[in-house]
């Protein structure tokens, strides 16, 4: 059995970070209001471009206020989407961290259970629709046909 | 090339429905406020038990008021979860019908785009976390350890 | 590294269960013929509605005799479907518990290996069909066209 | 909108097939008892090695009698696994062709519905187990510990 | 049956594009060397932030030379990853567009077939490893343990 | 909590292997240039037919030179496909073993990060294309229409 390890690469510690990576680490701590940089980000830092692209996208979408932008979704809804996607994909790291985020936002067991039950339901109906190859008959309205 | 078809089985038409299936068809029309029974339900009706189990679950979770229950999530959030799961699974029928439901609830292109962008983002981060096998370091708090 | 934990929420112990949850726990023990309630069900119990919906569906489909219903599939085939789906989704909890169920039903290594080989084969062919975007040319017969 | 097409490559017609590909085409027709080679196989034939590897595996597992081998699973169970996996993966080509195969074996709507309901159920429970990150507590028995 | 449609929203035509969206459309045409903006990008444009985030990431990773960056992977390898991921996810739009990109780069049927065969193989082995819950015994070397 | 275990079945040790299984074990050690048989193969060996089918396919595709065949892809590209698929599927065993293989081939953190970033990107765009149900408009050229 292998020893416990954090990832398939050695994450970049906060002490080792320099330049662009150090700047992003500081931005993560500040934007998320945490006092350490989660191992997810320290793993991406093994390729600084990757770290920058993913952080820029996540910061803009999940912390819009930090970029001067306005979201049409409240923080709880955004984190619920994160948990719904992560549960559907079975991502252990992401389920844990986004459930933690929902807890910080005050979500209780009862409401989390409702989220999960709905996630489970649509995973069931999705596979039924695919398993029978059911063709769409309820379509969203379009304002007008695209001429392209 | 095959002729156009609705599913791998012949869906049960509203005219053909009798007994339990006819009752559920009426309940679907009434609960959803639609004037036809979508082909998804008419396909499940080829096995009435299946129709009943799935409709009971969906009605309770997505139309709680129709069962006398109270949801801690608003209808828009519930449909956003449906779209997030269906997009992640790539289910054509479900993406179409739940986007249609979100339209009925007044969701505009801009907000749908934000939902989709977040769905896309977490599909990306989920696969990065898995692709590096990153071990969870941010965990949701537990009130106390389970003694089981 | 985090301490060992059972789930992202604290499961409801058998001692804590009351009312509807206690009734379902008793039904699970009785229906499954086990002397403890598996942590899967105790986790769902953090939202009793979720526990009830999922247990009702699973009991009806996997323990039909306990509901007075008759299945057209034998127990072994039903558990083989459970393992095939769980392997395809990569669900650790479910692969373990349904492999255990197949063992109880007397399935040996050789037969489990045949199930797995077929699961693996169709995961391969599914992705080849999708990777080449091959259009269906072998379709199941329909008794007659749906007029809807 | 693009014209209708069979795949992202041009499948090898039966007239064009020569050598190894022609031999495998003949074996497919004979083993499956069909009078044409389905487009799936004709697409794989654009790389003859691929055709050979996939056909050898599928023939051995799904038509064992044609290779002189004995299966511990009956043909219906093997095709049920194929449909369960294909529904879970949402593979249109495969859902269609394996539902057709189940029809040939005499499976009726009611039984197909039971298969689908169970496939849907375990897609739901799989995602609940992952969405809560529930740790396995029901494990299959092992005869003895591996000393490796 | 519904009329043919391009997406669940009406894509933004090139004529309608203004401001930031028009700029990105021009950049897409220029960077990709195409004389129209594919409907994928015109759909994302219904939320301009989404368009910008996704295009910035894709341009940096798939057209690094256009951003003054250097890739350690050649264009063919990058597109092979795109096709491998898209086939595994069963994404019709993406399989088509990235197979087209590989054709432009000169990839022939034989080599595409080798890519697909390997994609199919690892989808098979992935599910076998998950279906048996095999624990990792071959781990990538780490330079030293992370002290975090 | 369960004791540590290698798989849901007891893998066949090298000492126990006889006949066909022993031959394949020897071939694995020789072809891969390793001094032990990884637990993946020893697990498949619980059904010798499964072991033979999977090893024959993997050997032909990933070690073509050992079968006298020629690959149009270099070993690094082949392993990159393995990692891309395994990351997309979230297979822990496979991500670890194929990242190890890429390390042996000299891939550094920076390049692995580029592979991962591209894998993440296309998981994002795949789900956007599906989430909007975008219809293909960029198709690979076909030499001529199939007359079938």
Largest interface: A-B, 68 and 68 residues
Question: Oligomeric status of the shown chains?
Answer: homohexamer
Strand content of chain A: under 5%
> How many individual helices of chain A?
6
Residues in helices of chain A, as a percent range: 55-70%
- Major sheet size, sense and barrel closure of chain A: none
Report on the architecture of this protein.
The structure is a homohexamer of 148-residue chains. With 148 residues, chain A is an all-alpha fold. Chain A is built from 6 helices and no strands. In chain A, helix 1 runs parallel beside helix 3. The longest helix of chain A has 23 residues. The N and C termini of chain A lie far apart (58 Å). Chains in contact: A-B, A-C, A-D, A-E, A-F, B-C, B-D, B-E, B-F, C-D, C-E, C-F, D-E, D-F, E-F. At the B-F interface, helix 4, helix 5 and helix 6 of B face helix 4, helix 5 and helix 6 of F.
Short description:
The structure is a homohexamer of 148-residue chains. Chain A is mainly α.
């Amino acid at each position: 059995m292998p020893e416990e390890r954090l990832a398939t690469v050695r994450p970049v510690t906060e002490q080792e970070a320099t330049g662009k990576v150090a700047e992003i680490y500081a931005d993560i701590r500040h934007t998320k209001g945490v006092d350490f940089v989660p191992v997810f980000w320290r793993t991406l830092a093994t390729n600084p471009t990757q770290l920058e692209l993913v952080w820029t996208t996540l910061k803009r979408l999940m912390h819009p206020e930090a970029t001067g932008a306005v979201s049409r979704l409240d923080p709880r809804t955004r984190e619920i989407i994160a948990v719904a996607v992560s549960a559907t994909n079975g991502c252990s790291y992401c389920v844990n961290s986004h459930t933690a985020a929902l807890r910080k936002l005050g979500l209780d067991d009862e409401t989390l259970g409702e989220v999960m039950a709905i996630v489970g339901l649509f995973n069931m109906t999705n596979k039924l629709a695919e398993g029978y190859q059911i063709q769409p008959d309820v379509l969203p309205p379009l304002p007008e046909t695209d001429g392209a």
